[in-house]
Amino acid sequence: MKRVMLTVAYDGTRYHGWQIQNNGETIEGILNRCLSELLGETIEVIGASRTDSGVHAMGNVAVFDTESPIPADKISYALNRRLPEDITIQRSQQVDPAFHPRHTVSHKTYEYRIYCAPFPMPVRRLYSHFTYVPMDLSLMQSAAKYLVGTHDFKSFCSTQAQVESTIRQVESLDVFREGRELVIRVTGRGFLYNMVRIIAGTLMEVGRGYIAPEEVVRILEAKDRQAAGPTAPACGLTLVQIVYEQ
Amino acid sequence: MKRVMLTVAYDGTRYHGWQIQNNGETIEGILNRCLSELLGETIEVIGASRTDSGVHAMGNVAVFDTESPIPADKISYALNRRLPEDITIQRSQQVDPAFHPRHTVSHKTYEYRIYCAPFPMPVRRLYSHFTYVPMDLSLMQSAAKYLVGTHDFKSFCSTQAQVESTIRQVESLDVFREGRELVIRVTGRGFLYNMVRIIAGTLMEVGRGYIAPEEVVRILEAKDRQAAGPTAPACGLTLVQIVYEQ
After folding, report:
1. What residue ranges of chain A are covered by domains with CATH 3.30.70.660?
2. Which of A57, A221, A239, B183 is most buried (CB neighbours < 10 A)?
């Protein structure tokens, strides 16, 4: 028996998110089905990040155990032949049998993209949130600085979430222009439910001048979801990579 | 009566190209239908570039004449409400009644994008041509230099095309890396049928080492479609902009 780690990329547009559910196709469900068919065993993957419906990934991670003689690094090729074209395995590799993708210390990087122009751009509509309200990049950059570091991010967590602690460490949070898009790139060891999208929604309010950059301090201190900006739409969010320590 | 110019952006994935045809939806067909409904007149647009099936645009141009009292610059807003989300008007403006989008001197810029990696990336699959064969950027850049300027591009024109002259001027042709993609950006006053995709297909062969950069001179001199590389797939091509002189 060996444990195999997959680096998984997907276009989340037509999926009901990562996690298996009854009403709709999910990334996890398709991986389980295609892996089980390929390997002739019942496979159930464990995912690193259970991304929401409509969220994209360039490098999510899943692990599973198998008795298959197929070398771990060849599973990517065989599995990609079975997967739909909006899901691909970027890499497959053998890992320690004790490796767990959510319990091992990691650094996750997400990008939130905003297409800010008078009218939407069709080729970007599925991967970037469109808004015609202009935004001031330098205000967003000023506000972002207050969120870097270890804070109680309770105000940036959707209320339905049940977690032991809402303290998280944001290792970096950069806001920059790339072509016609604004990009919010954030790296941290872990994020609360909807945290990146609430950070994006709050920074957009700052960019529009509705919230002053320094008010972000007050929003953190409030420890109240109502104090922060709205949850930005899913399509603008992409899980770029997960880097494991060890 | 006034003549209105539209700057049109679209995701070409699900269309049978620009030009109206019997078997399938086209950009031109949808524009005519939505404009006719909006303005209560029979509208037939004249397009600048009749892009192929699957090719995208950020700034194609179409003109039409109308008796409508709607100000030309407001037509974009009204029309976008009727168009599907994979076609948007970026701008509408009144132009001289004699303006013709194909007979007026213009500078067209196209980008051909190549995603070169071991496996495809789902979020780029519709907008970038995937290949796992590595390419040498500097070889492609060397070859590109030979194509800049005024040449007989007969070798870079699909044979079914009937044109008076195959001499064209390539004003610039740059090859560069952008993130994980190679981008071929070309600007010229006009292009032959499939010319940009044949240039892209030829530069890819150069990048793979199958054609030496200086052989491009011989390919031009051959004036024979068989001498050049293959026509690169449509999905990698985007018409970025058309700038009119005057």
Report:
1. 107-244
2. A57
Q: Is B11 close to A56, i.e. CB distance below 8 A? A: no
Residues of chain B with CATH 3.30.70.660: 109-244
Q: Which residues does A contribute to its contact with B (CB < 8 Å)?
A: 9-11, 56, 58, 76, 80, 85-90, 118-123, 125-127, 238
Catalytic residue numbers of A read 52
What pTM was computed for the model? 0.94
**Among chain A residues, CA nearest to B12:** A123
Distance between A122 CA and the closest CA of chain B, angstroms: 5
> B190 Cβ partners below 8 Å, 6+ apart?
B106, B108, B168
Would you say the ipTM is above 0.90?
A: yes
Fold annotation for B2-95: Alpha-Beta Plaits (3.30.70)
Copy the structure tokens of residue A19: 């996690």
pLDDT, one tens digit per residue, over A137-153 is: 999 999 999 999 999 99
pLDDT digits 0-9 by tens, A71-97: 999 999 999 999 999 999 999 999 999
Going by C-alpha positions, the residue among A56, A55, A59, A93 that lies closest to residue A74 is A93
Rounded-to-integer distance, Cα B74 and Cα B198, Å: 39
Handedness of CA A54, A239, B234, B132 (dihedral sign): negative
Inter-helix orientation angle B215-222/B137-147, to 10°:
40
Q: Identify the segments of chain B with pLDDT beneath 50.
A: none
Nearest chain B residue to A235 by CA distance is B123
Amino acid A116 reads C
